[in-house]
Amino acid sequence: MVTTRRALAALPLALPLWAATAQAQAQPIETFHAALLDVMRNAQRLGARGRYDRLAPVMNQVFDLAAMTRISVGPAWTGFAAADQAALVDAFSRWSIATYAARFDGFSGESFATQGTQAMPNGDQLVRTLLNRTGGQEAVALAYLLRGGRVVDVYLTGTISELASRRGEFAGLIREGGAPRLIQELQSRTARLLG
After folding, report:
1. Residue 72, CA atoms < 13 Å, CB-side half-sphere
2. Where are the domains of the chain?
3. In the chain, which residue ranges form alpha helices assigned H by DSSP?
4. What angle (nearest 5°) sits at the alpha carbon of residue 76, between those of residues 120 and 173?
5. Pairing between strand 111-119 and 125-132?
6. pLDDT at residue 3, as a whole number
């Protein structure tokens, strides 16, 4: 009984510490969302390339784009030459940033809300968020998987891995022509997105 009382007495002290830890874990996502909202509010004035330029430093800080490239490519990654790996990271990074610049091209009162964080058994953190839309549209659930404090995957509707989807698509391109074929495709997509 004494142990239970001590645990209950310590609970008010532990809750602020837990809340501060959860807030710190979600901070990279809050930073990213603030940049997205800024880009959305200024979308027309910035244009696609301006949005890209605004998002690039934040995404390079918040996302581990090199890890995301390796995960998206899958087992084939280890068979690529170092120069091809570097070129793939560059092409994948540019394409990822251009994709966000193209998708978030206007503002109609949207907002982001962090729903909470969840510690994974391997030490990763999952930050669950909502993109609140206006005009009676349903909110979109987005979850960010963080490893070492940086995003390594994004889950649409909370469950669909963006990188798992890309891996299937990239495997076909790699079969067609290895790393050079995938690099060429990513560069072409980036050029189209940025006009």
Report:
1. 29
2. 2-194
3. 2-41, 43-62, 65-73, 82-103, 162-194
4. 110
5. antiparallel
6. 47
Q: What is the CA radius of gyration of the chain?
A: 20
The whole-number pLDDT of residue 195 equals 87
DSSP 72: H
Residue type, 7: A
User: What letter represents residue 111's amino acid?
Assistant: S
pLDDT along the chain (195 residues), means of 10: 47 45 79 97 96 98 98 96 98 98 95 94 95 92 95 89 93 96 98 95
| CA–CA separation, 45 and 102 (whole Å) | 14
Residue 157 has a pLDDT of: 82
Structure confidence at residue 17 (pLDDT) = 38
pLDDT at 136: 87
| Tokens linked to 102 | 């193209």
The pLDDT value recorded for residue 14 is 45
Nearest to 191 by CA among 98, 101, 106, 103: 98
The set of residues, in sequence order, having a beta carbon less than 8 Å from that of 116 and lying 6+ positions away, is 22, 127, 128
CATH of the domain spanning 2-194, picked from 3.10.450.710, 3.30.70.860, 2.40.160.20, 3.40.50.2300: 3.10.450.710
